[in-house]
Design goal:
homotetramer, N-(1-d-carboxylethyl)-l-norvaline Dehydrogenase, domain 2, six-stranded parallel beta sheet, 14 helices
């Protein structure tokens, strides 16, 4: 009986192996961090991207089927729908004892279904979305919010720590996605609300540059006001990092979760609606910070 | 050297004198900082408070009338209405060249009227509200947002720097109040919105303590989420520092200003309405962080 | 005349037969109207209710299995989930050519799934929710908003006209539910907003009774302001007709639909959130008009 | 001393005389109704308008100064600011016993000041704004919401009844304006919210014309949905009757009043903000129904 033994070696002290699906803006530096610590197979839909990653970061470009042999399989994709596609493909060959870690900003309901499907094959699941951007991944300081079982979390922690600085188990499967959705909708809310404040101040004749500086030194500051406004809004240099359409999607997930548990969150709901309006008026593929252009449109001013 | 000459020395290099009206939670440490640098007269409506301040910080308790002789007169009061009272009392004896600096979280429209009244007596006016709390005043790190003329601001800057760390001129008279109102409504908005997020997460079965930690390490963080929630909300130790009724008033000022210039700020307007609801259901005299109890009430959960 | 022939007669000119599942506040008078025009089988989960209906209105109490023989099967249930249960039970014995008409305030996504399942058995589906209350059903004046194919709608129209006064096809399957969700969230929005207006007027010292009368004579009037406020709110006689929990559910369906098509509807989203808050603070099983008590709570006044 | 006697005859049974300032869309038919019942002096800022009114309706074009001799002086102007101008002009020559009736959609705070100024001259004041449009004025069916003292109201009632169908005293001075502001913001809210519902339905593939018809037959109907959408929105014939800028102003008055009494009205506040956004994106001088274009813009659809 060699199979059970093989499975049991997965929790042994030998170096685990990782597989990483999705080499986007976030996945690329995250997979690079993993590759710096252990054998790491990488795969991307776009041909050539995995080979380039291997050449630059020492990972190994792999066929889809071979990924199933890794101890830890990471996905980092646009939505939960894409994750389903790869689970479909790999499920027949996944080995018991494997851990699937989804770093997508996904839906808690999808996570619960995915975890159940994988559990039937003896595969554990963690939802482990991240916050902090490519720079945070490169610095190994990402915030990682993890949903799943404590024992699985403990096994995965050394790998998550390669790119994460604050890595915490926040509850059962789906909880990581739930927290990530709240994180992102709050980020969007802070961005829109400081834009509202600045737009009204401009109409009152206030100088925006010093106003923002004192707001950021005061109790009204937020990550959004500190890291986005002077850098992107005032300069009109909206570098496309995280798409507005994806932020609107994340706000939608937060609102979907709120509805599922019959919670009441009027400010978050308003934000979700405004982000859809921003998407309709400004575009889906622009950087999320361009959402402020909705506020500018509604007020007839430009924030600079 | 006759009296008119004395007035002219006010812009000389001799040490200026300060007067401070309003020894509340903020005024007390601010006046203490001034008293450490220059002769400082203090006054408070409550008998004995000025004497105690003098004994502890080296200021000088003064009669109301004598305050008019100071070069710089500070007010730090609950609302612009109280400032009007003291302008009424002192205006007849104020000397030309004096600077009146109002650190109240006041109304821009009131500032413009007050500035005009004082200007008729040759007295300059600055609205210079502060953010950062008593600890910031003691550390000399307050954010001070100043409205007024550049020359007056330059004269007042050394005094403002005794308690301020980020002291900036943000526009003409009233601009300081305008920015302060935005700062405070954003602070309230961030507090209510993180409470909304956490309430919905609790109903989803998420552990709030690690969830807040990762939110604070992520892009959804704000001054409010970092400094208020674990310290006061999770512990249920709502120490009364800044009253909820005053925060609701400040949000109201922000909304009044928004209306005056026909701006559109749906998230700020929603916050102003929710803070009034919090005041009605939780109380006016409690600490402003108790506003989260409205969110708890609307969701049937307690955030801890 | 064998069974297949019987099935073909279903589109003949002989009197069709109806079955009705769900004898609640609405179902009871709707089934009574049908029974006045054609043979009508009735069924309800609660024992004895069907028999009482038969005795009073001339319908026929039936076993669940026998319902499958009717030409038109109506469901009028709390949510789409209950409809699924009865489709599960009857699907094996349903005959091709049957029309299933769901008058529940259901979910469009559920309707599309239900229609597909039934179509596989040759059964057509209409979502046909109603508005107008038990009195409207008794008077035959209900508004009926129908989703489905035009040919099916034409066949069902004579039956729908027994209880409906305005019966219209509004689009493909699911469209009826979509319109009903909008109808109900607007009704809730109008109720909450007139309550907001009246609460603020009371705090301004205005007499509410004449104020409501002129509002209802003016352009600010709505079905809610005309039919609910003086009758129930002012009298504090909140007779339990349509439960607040169900209205909150319907608002949730409207918001779910809005999210699905990435629409932006800030006022509707705010209403959905406020109705959940009303449910949390006032209760689920009270009449929906008690939602005004949330507005009263947030303003510290009673509307009378 | 005949003057006092003259004043006393003003409450006698002789036919009173009226003066009317402001012959706009509403003022024109209202003054015409008065002129049908009693001697009526008319005045308008635009030269020739009063003469035309006199020629068509039997009123008498008058110089400004002569208006002061009327028993009842009506104003029907864009805002309270214009009313102040005419009070300034006429106050020196107004006779005690005169009643000033302001039918403007004004501010309660302005009404209280105006009433106090006039009271010092022995002149009574009523705020008596109207709802129902020019057609309602011509039909004598306007809703008139009156603030002031009961005795003054009784004296004015026969005159108000010439154009009003529902004429009610709703409270002390200012109450009429308070109710009118609520009426108008509700009308705007109903218009925006049915547009939100329809925009989301269109994106769901629903046919809007029958959908609106059933909504109007259902519990989600409102004056706005019944009288504005099929007539103006669906036809894209936005005839300029009541300007969007004035509706936004009225919503602002409602919100100002709400803030003054520290009420919480999130839906009304959201409406005020959206109307300002509509004004910024669509224009001030267009008909108020064009506010739906904001909803169209935010959803990327046209409502027809």
């Amino acid at each position: 009986m060699t199979q059970p033994a093989t499975a049991s070696t997965k929790i042994s002290t030998t170096t685990p192996t990782a597989a990483f699906i999705g080499l986007g803006a976030m996945g690329t530096p995250m997979a690079a961090q993993l590759a710096g610590q252990m054998p790491t197979l990488v795969w991307n839909r776009t041909p050539g991207k995995a080979e380039a990653h291997a050449a630059e970061y020492g990972s190994a470009a792999s066929e889809m089927e071979a990924l199933a042999q890794a101890d830890f399989i990471f996905t980092c994709l646009p939505t939960s729908a894409e994750v389903d596609i790869y689970i479909d493909q790999l499920l027949p060959t996944l080995r018991p004892g494997t851990v699937w870690i989804d770093c997508t900003s996904g839906r808690p309901a999808a996570a619960r279904e995915q975890a159940a499907r994988l559990a039937a094959a003896g595969v554990a699941f963690l939802d482990a979305p991240v916050s902090g951007g490519p720079a945070g991944a490169r610095a190994g300081t990402l915030a990682v919010m993890v949903g799943g079982e404590a024992a699985t979390f403990e096994r995965a922690l050394p790998l998550l720590n390669t790119f994460g600085g604050t890595v915490l188990l926040v509850g059962p499967v789906g909880s990581g996605f739930a927290v990530k959705a709240v994180n992102n909708v709050l980020m969007g809310l802070h961005l829109l609300s400081v834009a509202e404040g600045l737009a009204s101040l401009k109409k009152q004749g206030v100088d925006l540059a010093p106003a923002l500086t004192v707001l950021n030194a005061g109790s009204g500051s937020s990550f959004s006001s500190q890291n986005k406004v002077s850098q992107q809004v005032f300069t009109r240099q909206f570098s496309p990092m995280f798409k507005l359409g994806l932020l609107a999607k994340d706000a939608g997930i937060a609102l979907e979760n709120i509805q599922e548990v019959q919670a009441s969150a009027p400010l978050i709901a308003a934000t979700a609606m405004l982000l859809r309006a921003a998407q309709a008026t400004v575009g889906s593929d622009v950087d999320h910070t361009e959402a402020v252009k909705l506020v500018e449109l509604l007020n007839g001013v430009e924030l600079n």
